[in-house]
Write a structure and sequence with these properties.
Layout lengths: L9 H10 L2 E5 L4 H4 L11 H12 L4 E4 L6 H14 L5 E2 L6 H9 L3 E4 L3 H8 L4 E3 L17
Length: about 150
Amino acid sequence: MDDFDWSNTERGRDIGKAIKPFIAFYLGPERGHTDEGHNRNWLWEPKHWIQLALLLKDFGYNFCVVGAEYDRSFWEKYVKKGVEEAGMTWIDLIGDLEIGETFALLKEAAAFVSYQCGLGIVGHYLGVKTAMWWRPDGNSAHPTRLVSF
């Protein structure tokens, strides 16, 4: 990340500065939870995202969700309603930022909690306190063949 070109990422940085202090969540794609993927069979349930935010909100954090437009359906179908029912408001940035802008936003975050993906790995390399969960060794991310990390 030392050689990353930060030009044209100011928008993400500015949004991050405006919503501080915040924790960013990358929830992942719907298919990665419901069909095949790192959360197949609901190792981490939608309610767990909400429970985590409820534990952290009393520390004064705002929350935002990031990702590509193809991540929107999981947020809208499985998590958003529970966030609202818990009386919280999360800033929805899904599909709104280019990848470099997302990196710049994450640099401003107090922490980042991520579905297992490259974005979570980059968060770590940006120096952001990052948490990602993984499937247990040998527990396949695919329903019919072994894909294990």
